Amino acid sequence: MTASAASAAHPLPADWRDFFALTKPRVMSLVIFTGLCGLLAAPVSIDPVIGFTAILCIALGAGGSAALNQWWEADLDAMMKRTASRPLPAGRMERTSARDFGVGLSAASVMIMGVAVGWLAAAILALSIVYYSVVYTVWLKPRTPQNIVIGGGAGAFPPMIGWIAATGEVTLMPVLLFAIIFFWTPPHFWALALFVETDYAKAGIPMMPVVAGHQSTRRQILVYAVLMLPISLAPFWLAVAGWLYGASALLLSGVFLLLALRVAVFRGGAGDMDMRPEKRLFAYSVLYLFALFAALVADRYLVG
User: Quick one: the chain helix, strand, coil %, rounded to 5?
Assistant: First the structure.
């Protein structure tokens, strides 16, 4: 028996860092930020304690669904270089511990949100948890190359939840915020999938580059980048955001479109170890979302 196999058979006692890793901290940072921006951009004042509680619940819900995702995909994660060092495939934690941790965080987030903030926000939070941990993880991801397209809704909920936590109602603006992230998700993840395609192929996950090939994936990235331009500008066009947001959205989405165009015309193959256009787009896509939502909040408080 190899050392890794022995470790997997007899997991070491997990410490707090392993549980923290289950929450996917890098992803959670984006979830927390967009949720906070949705809350701050709402045209109402909210009690700081209630606001903090709402963001805490969004973070707990995101962390819980991420833990459930890793519990379900532990065997797949072990096949991929990018994820093999996670607590479960590395043998540092019992699978049941990850499952119970995920269920506990998820349930606590929904109950606290409902009692302390509002049950409409809690219901949307619960929907987002089920969407990611069940609809995306269990159903979509292993079955269809459209997994990221349909599953993009999971990551699009946080700003909607933040807005609803502040206002108590669903209006046009949170729907637009949802749509922005929904259409941002495919080019963001497909850019990543292009330069880690071998990992997905090895694990048998039907990501778009594995099923449709690189050129088709690049063209689809460009299509979504084109769609993102008017969608990101929609809050300005519909007069629910001001000129500062509108100018920022035009600039940021224009750069995104140019980088996506560079990816679309790039001719490197699956064996090309450079993949600079894809890596640039992936890195910029993270910056894009942070900057766009920061502009939304700045527009609310500086322009009003």
Answer: 80, 0, 20
